[in-house]
Amino acid sequence: MQTDIFTAHEQENEAPTLVQVLVPVAVERPYTYKVPAGMAVRPGSIVKVPLGPQLVIGAVWDGVADTKLDPKKIRGIVHVYDCAPLGDDLRKFVDWVANWTLSAPGMVLRMVLRSEEALQPEPPQVCLQFNAAAPLPRLTQARQRVLDVVGEGALLGKADLASAAGVSTSVVEGLKQAQVLQELLLPPPPVCKPPDPSLQGHPLTSLQQAAANQLIEAVGSNPQTFLLDGVTGSGKTEVYFEAIAAVLKQQKQALILLPEIALTNQFLERFEKRFAARPAEWHSKITPKTRERTWRAVASGEAKVVIGARSALFLPFKKLGLIVVDEEHDGAYKQGDRVVYNARDMAVLRGHLSKFPVVLASATPSVESRINAQEGRYQLLSLPERATGAAMPRIECIDMRQDGPERGKWLAPKLVKDIHATISQGKQALLFLNRRGYAPLTLCRTCGHRFHCDNCSAWLVEHRFKGKLVCHHCGYSQPIPEKCPECSKPDTLVACGPGVERIAEDISDLFPDARVLVLSSDMPGGAERFKEEMKLVEEGRVDIIIGTQLVAKGHNFPNLTLVGVVDADLGLANGDPRAAEKTYQLMAQVTGRAGRICGQGKGILQTYNPEQPIMNALLKGDAEGFYETESQARKNAGLPPFGRMAALVISAANRAEAEAYSRVLVSHSPPNDQVSILGPAEAALALVRGKYRFRLLVITRRSFNLQGFLRQWLANAPQPRGGVRVQIDVDPQSFL
Ligand code: ADP
Ligand code: ZN
After folding, report:
1. Taking Cα atoms as reference points, which of 578, 591, 657, 648 lies closest to residue 618?
2. Ligand 1 mean position to 376 CA, how many Å?
3. Model pTM?
């Protein structure tokens, strides 16, 4: 890559200096712009340029400018931001991600440059201090209070000072006018304190130490990808904290990626305990102000460790030395819209391009990562035992065909008995059901009418607590009607099947005295309430927890010994080639919550298919057997990582148009005997948000250039017209 500085030629008659600028829109390549006289830019400089009628933020890019363009038509860069240019390896990363996902590079750049404010230097803080030189005016009580606060040494701005003194801002303003208070400009406070790598963590077990040593050795010298495969509670976090300490000692930065919902306060506190400082955070819940400040601090190198959701991967680190992808198997790493990418895989790519190690950690790795480790592409680090010595939970199945509950109830007598035993010993029980709301389907007893969403092929889910029927795909909701909209009979609606709210109803009938908590992402109160509820659980002030996916990750509940899975078959029914894997992971993760510290944990799976291989693997704790079977199946079918796969999702407001264009695409696919194209098939979720969807699946050998094939195909096919849209999903995770 070039690192030259382009300075505009000063002489009038010389040809203007031209550069390539990548703009944040969906175009294939950078555009050519003029560097006006007196301006200096270099590859990576962040600039403002005209684009059509607008001004947009872009970055000077690599490659030579198009000199055949009519010079009169080339527009000039308007402004260069006074911030560090995007580094060579970040630009390379943007190009690679675009290339891999078949996205426009500008759309990937957009994930890097998220706010203009972050590009400008942060303004200093304006504080007010006492000016001893000014003559003291008459002091009211209010004014006196302000001076008292200032006298105590507080350095505050106008509004904060007024509120600290309990007066209105006009009182403070009056003192400023009288020059008793004068302005003092202070540099903005740091976003976060530097973590201290010299502190010691838990003394590690010998297995942990061996794994940590390999990572420490890799930091700075061995840009490899590691798979840290350790059972729940094996102390993976402690191990990768050692690697982070090593990175910090080398004055480099580290990034820990977590699925958004596992990004908890508990985790941040744990980091703080280990390194005596909180890391910088990056996720959808931080305020715009913190977002700007964090972006800047990451770019300047001031933020040493970032803990973030997938989008943190696109931060402009000054000197990144390690990425940890925790819960690497998690589907939340895949972004499904705009740029469709998997942050786990792109993290591996970023490490590869910038030559630093990447650690993928999980108790239930993805089948891909396991195979990649087996075949030597990743280095495997195993932790087969819990760090505290606690035994792994015992797993049992309840065959719901024989031992199920009576009609209209959802918990088998055996499970109820175990809950009883658990809570009467002062321990906690968790009931897991990955279904929000009260009931997944509502129908009319008289005419059979079923409530479904008009925009999606999905039933409306009853949320009794909110009194609504809700679509979980598009968010549409309506009040629960008093009579059937079809036959108009009152009081005929019945709820079919359970959601967490309905389980809670069963539980309060069975255990009227127990302290019960429902944890589900749609409960009112948001993040604050959730934080408090987590605390209640941690402190043992809840007996029975009923939760969705939200409880499957991220939290340690020390007092929890029983986990009951209400419907272990739930994920298996939907024709998804990854269904077995996903179900296995979820079941192992959620039952792994039991007895983390004390041992004596038990997991109970309610199932109608106890003879399923995955139930067997779970019962016997036979992870190896499970991965073996799955790997073999993938190998036989040529599925990733043995082969390569991409999905094309064709959508349109009109079903026939979507189908017709899917057929046009198939008929224009370049002939190639190394590629199989399946479909078009109507998507399992055929209608989403008012769009009909058809799918094509492309499968090739591993060594085949899938992206090149797709690019050629789409370039040669007739362009879609009207509202028809094609979305490409390389290495799809979801098949709905
Ligand atoms: P994982 O990430 O593998 O699930 P954690 O790192 O969260 O495991 O560790 C699980 C629990 O064990 C935590 O409470 C942690 O503090 C504790 N722990 C981890 N390593 C050790 C150790 N070497 N000695 C004692 N306790 C440990
Ligand atoms: Zn809907």
Report:
1. 591
2. 28
3. 0.90
